[in-house]
Design goal:
heterodimer, A: alpha+beta, 24 strands, about 30% strand, B: alpha/beta, Glutaredoxin, 5 helices
């Protein structure tokens, strides 16, 4: 919001300094016909006042702070659970206040909607006013121009009417909007006004601000965000049930998803091998093949950090990666019960020591595992010393019994419910690629077949992003225009000279909120030009030419 | 003064109208989206308004070819499942029982094994006594085909019942009960032709 208001359109009958200097003023005290109407009008005026809008804007900013400080349900539900675990007393209260889902909280929506109403209520009447003021001619010239903030006078050899005509030519040439007194009247003056662009800038700013809010709302209603973890060699189709996480906008359902398919051919992570930043990632690259719809021609792309794939008006970002050790589990009967590259979740992002579980319910076996990309033995256990899979190993703890997977209650694929199970051995068992652990008691076996990598992809659709950017740029442009363009009025009044021949011409000027300065200089130049614009054939006396600038 | 009043009225009306329209749109669209299921948890399509099932082709868990269109003339019960999915494993005995009951009565059972590997899936089907074939659909491609055809299989498990003419008669999203499935199978027998 800017601190500028349009000069209100003036009733033409009043002609006084008061009129020339009259500014737009907001509130007249409500004097409604009934008390209720008065209160309503007062409430409305409060809501649409700039102060309220500023307070709401400030509250919106303030309200966003918990959204970035506290973990949010939408983006990181696991972190919210973690917060609950570490702050059991505080977390429920924060939840009551909606602080774990700030941007969907009713109070946040209330601020948003009030701000929206305030802006609409401010901008719509302003549009009317701009149109009105664009149609209204400048006010009549005040009687005493010398009282205006800027003024100067000079003697002219011309008659008052001719002198004012000269001023009209100068001001008209500078694209001032003019209002001239009757050419044959005794009172000779011209009013000129310029700087309507300021209101246009002001309006552009307000409308763009509305546009930004609308764009963000459109993003929230029609956009969505989804996550998918994809192991090398795996394909997935963008459907609700295939996605690991799906956060649709209010007006999005699973059937609105564009049916693109994508295969992760290969994921490459490079790390700095030496020096102080050893182990720091230097490059990530997800080599994918995709189809925009089933049966469409395939395309290929390398998704990198900050280099998303654009497909079907969505963007696919690379947001994470990890290892998926491949296991083969056989049951007591010797039949293969499980064979899959199983995504493990990094527990340490520096060394990529990762945790995961293997569930083979049809062999009644489950394993909790730690994957070590570059393993070295340390005091009887293994540690990872480098994030790349240079010397991979897995350490497994085996369980046998009922995994609870037939209960009908959905389970996390990253957690093993060991309540109905017993450990098959006392200590963890270390496996290198290709090695098999034959479980004690003939319960079966597990083979560490090899290692694949997985990439975590964020699929986002935000229809409000581009409009919000455009509106943001327009808002800035409007703000600059309203800062740098001055609304200014110049008046010229000529009276017959006391000597009887020629006239005395007074030029007066005023501006409002001369934020960028410079009106004084502009006025001085104008006054000089007007004085110098005497027709050639009748040069004024140089001695009387000018007392410019005056103040 | 009168003009100013009229403008205020126009402005207030405009704001209120925009807010009401937005609220109405949100309410209507959020409640109307997706598959509306009835009180029994069944999404049923009336005969004549049934979407045509996509012509899905694929390979089974054992590597043989399956073509959905080759089941024309039979009612098809297509179950989207995965061996990793607890509700799927829970409902499997129901499906196996229905297969036995209706298999000889012109009803064919099929599975679509999503997000899974054939090894894991076969270990389960052998143990659960499921003898009907399943598409091996690790990447949810069959789900996408149905989505394109206007049938949103929005969760796993979902069971879709296709009538003899190849149109989707209805579905159950989530674990299906014996009652739900027999209702759907009977509904599917009522075709337009």
């Amino acid at each position: 919001m800017t601190d500028v208001h349009a000069p209100q359109s003036q009733p033409e009958s009043v002609a006084a300094e008061g009129e020339a200097t009259q500014q737009f003023g907001e509130g007249k005290t409500p004097q409604g016909t009934t008390a209720n109407a008065g209160w309503l009008r007062w409430g409305w005026r409060q809501l649409t006042s700039m102060r309220t809008a500023l307070v709401l804007l400030f509250l919106l900013a303030l309200g966003s702070i918990p959204g970035s400080v506290l973990p949010q349900q939408g983006t990181d539900p696991a972190a919210v659970q973690q917060y609950y675990a570490s702050h059991p007393g505080l977390a429920p209260w924060l939840n009551h206040l909606g602080l774990f889902n700030v941007f969907a909280a009713p109070w946040f929506a209330a601020i948003y909607l009030l701000l929206f109403a305030s802006l609409v209520g401010c901008v719509v009447p302003r549009t009317f006013r701009l149109v009105g003021s664009a149609r209204t001619p400048p006010p009549r010239a005040p009687r005493n121009l010398a009282r205006l903030p800027q003024s100067s006078s000079y003697s002219s050899a011309l008659s008052p009417a001719a002198a004012v005509d000269g001023a009209v030519a100068v001001l008209g040439g500078q694209r001032f909007r003019l209002r001239r007194s009757a050419a044959d009247g005794a009172d000779q003056w011209v009013s000129a006004e310029k700087g309507y662009l300021r209101e246009v800038g002001n309006l552009l700013f307000h409308l763009s601000l509305l546009g930004v809010l609308l764009s963000i709302a459109a993003g929230g209603l029609f956009g969505y965000k989804a996550d998918k973890l994809l192991v090398e060699g795996q394909t997935f189709a963008d459907t609700n049930s295939a996605l690991d996480e799906f956060h649709p906008g209010r007006l999005v359902s699973g059937s609105d998803l564009p049916p693109f398919t994508m295969t992760l051919n290969k994921f490459t992570a490079s790390y700095i091998e030496s020096g102080q930043s050893r182990g720091q990632p230097s490059n990530f690259d997800a080599d994918v093949t995709y189809r925009s719809s089933p049966g469409a021609n395939p395309g290929s792309y390398h998704i990198r950090i900050n280099d998303p794939l654009s497909v079907d008006s969505l963007k696919v970002y690379l947001i994470g990666h990890g290892y998926a050790p491949e296991f083969k589990v056989t049951g007591a009967d010797g039949k293969v019960a499980y064979q899959e590259a199983t995504p493990f979740i990094p527990a340490n992002t520096a060394t990529f020591l990762s945790d995961g579980v293997v569930k083979a319910p049809d062999a009644s076996l489950g394993f909790m595992g730690v994957f070590v990309p570059t393993a070295i033995p340390v005091n009887g256990t293994v540690e990872s010393i480098f994030p790349a899979a240079d010397a991979p190993a897995v350490s497994l703890i085996g369980y046998s019994g009922n995994l609870g997977l037939n209960s009908g209650v959905p389970q996390s694929v990253y957690q093993l419910d060991t309540t109905g199970m017993t450990k098959v051995s006392g200590s963890p068992h270390l496996l290198l690629p290709g090695q098999t652990w034959a479980l004690p008691g003939g319960k079966g076996s597990i083979t560490f077949v090899g290692v694949k990598q997985w990439a975590s992809l964020a699929i986002t659709y935000d229809p409000g992003q581009v409009p919000a950017l455009v509106c943001g740029i327009l808002a800035l442009a409007g703000l600059l225009i309203s800062f740098f363009v001055r609304r200014r009025r110049v008046f010229v009044r000529a009276v017959p000279a006391a000597s009887g021949a020629g006239s005395v011409v007074t030029v007066g000027g005023l501006t409002r909120s001369d934020a960028s300065g410079g009106f004084e200089e502009e006025f001085a130049e104008l006054a000089t030009e007007i004085a110098a614009a005497e027709p050639d054939h009748d040069q004024p006396d140089p001695g009387n030419n000018s007392e410019v600038p005056g103040a | 003064m009168f003009k100013a009043k009229r403008r205020t009225v126009v402005t207030v009306t405009a704001v209120v109208a925009v807010l009401l329209a937005a609220a109405l749109a949100v309410t209507l669209l959020t409640s109307g989206k997706g598959n509306a299921s009835d009180a029994n948890g069944i999404v049923a399509y009336q005969a004549g308004q049934r979407p045509l099932a996509p012509n899905v082709t694929g390979t089974s868990l054992t590597g043989s070819a399956i073509k959905l269109s080759s089941y024309r003339g039979k009612t098809v019960v297509l179950n989207f499942w995965g061996s990793w999915c607890s509700p799927c494993r829970d409902e499997a005995p129901t499906l196996a029982g229905l297969d036995e009951q209706y298999g000889s009565k012109g009803v064919a059972f099929l599975g679509d094994d999503v997000g899974d590997t054939p090894a894991n899936a076969l270990a389960f089907t052998q143990r659960a006594g499921i003898t009907y074939p399943s598409f091996s659909d690790n990447g949810y491609l069959v789900v996408a085909d149905f989505s394109v055809a206007g049938v949103a299989v929005s969760d796993t498990p979902t069971t879709v019942v296709i009538d003899k003419t190849g149109h989707v008669a209805g579905m159950v999203i989530g674990a299906a009960s014996y009652g739900q499935l027999t209702t759907l199978i009977k509904d599917a027998a009522v075709t337009k032709e």
